[in-house]
Design brief:
Length: about 240
C-alpha cells in the first residue's frame, strides 16, 4: 500500500472518484495555501480571544472532516477498506486526533508566539505553516487510503515538529516591538487581545493544552468511566 497503490487504484478503475479526490485536495490546498496568512491570523485570534480549550475543540472537529471524506471515497472504490463508521477507524483516528490536537495546538501557539515576539516575519510564519500543512497533507493521503504503516511515521514526525516549534518559542527571548495606535484603539479589548501589550504573565500554553485535553468531553467521559469501573471492581473485591 502507499502512493503507488493509491494511484493504481484510483486512476484507471475509478476516474470519477479520482477526479473528486483530486478536486477536494486542490480545494484544501488552495484554502490553506493562498489564504494561509488569514488562517494563521484566525488561529491566533481564536487562541487569544476564545482560549486554548476552544481552539483545541475547534481543531479537533475541523480535523475530522478531510479524513472522513477521503476514507469514504476510498471505501466506495475498495470494498475491504475500513469505513468511517467502523470502530477500527475511530480507534486510529482517536489516537491520532488526541495526540495531534494537543501537539498541533502547541504548534500553532509556538508559531504565533515566534511571530508575536518579532522573531519570525509574516512570510516566515507562512513558510513554516506550509511545511506543517505538507506533513498534514502527506499523512492524510496514507490515512485516507488506510495505509497506516506509512501514516504513523509521518504523523509522529509532524508532532515532533510542532513540539519543537513550541519549545523554541518558549526559549527565545522577545524582541522589542513598537505598536503605533491612538489611545482609543490601544485601550480597546480586542486590540489588547490580539497584540501582546497586556502586563502580567500568561499561563503556560503547555498547561493550557493539557487542561484542554483533560476537560474535553470524550476524555472526561472516558476518565469518569474508568473511575466508575475502578470503584466498582474495588467494591466487589472487598470481603
Amino acid at each position: 500500500m502507499g502512493l503507488s497503490w493509491w494511484w493504481t487504484t484510483f486512476m484507471p478503475g475509478a476516474p470519477v472518484m479520482w477526479a473528486a479526490a483530486v478536486g477536494y485536495s486542490l480545494a484544501l490546498n488552495v484554502f490553506h495555501g493562498v489564504f494561509i496568512d488569514t488562517w494563521n491570523t484566525f488561529q491566533n485570534r481564536i487562541g487569544k480571544q476564545r482560549g486554548l480549550q476552544y481552539q483545541t475543540v475547534f481543531n479537533f472537529l475541523y480535523g475530522q472532516v478531510p479524513g472522513m471524506i477521503f476514507r469514504l471515497m476510498v471505501w466506495t472504490v475498495v470494498a475491504n477498506t475500513i469505513p468511517p463508521w467502523a470502530l477500527a477507524y475511530w480507534r486510529d483516528i482517536g489516537i491520532a486526533t488526541i495526540i495531534g490536537t494537543f501537539c498541533g495546538t502547541l504548534g500553532y501557539q509556538g508559531l504565533n508566539g515566534l511571530y508575536d515576539k518579532g522573531i519570525l516575519s509574516r512570510g516566515w510564519r507562512s513558510g513554516f505553516q506550509q511545511v506543517r500543512d505538507l506533513f498534514f497533507t502527506l499523512g492524510g493521503i496514507f490515512f485516507g487510503t488506510g495505509a497506516m504503516a506509512y501514516f504513523w511515521p509521518i504523523f509522529f514526525i509532524q508532532q515532533g515538529l510542532d513540539v519543537a516549534l513550541y519549545i523554541v518559542s518558549r526559549r527565545l527571548a522577545k524582541r522589542s516591538i513598537a505598536y503605533v495606535a491612538d489611545e482609543k484603539l490601544a485601550s480597546n479589548p480586542d486590540f489588547q487581545g490580539m497584540y501582546p501589550v497586556k502586563p502580567g504573565v500568561e499561563e503556560s500554553p503547555l498547561k493550557q493544552a493539557a487542561k484542554a485535553i483533560l476537560e474535553f468531553l470524550p476524555i472526561k467521559l472516558t476518565i469518569s468511566l474508568v473511575k466508575y469501573l475502578y470503584r466498582l471492581l474495588k467494591k466487589k473485591s472487598r470481603p
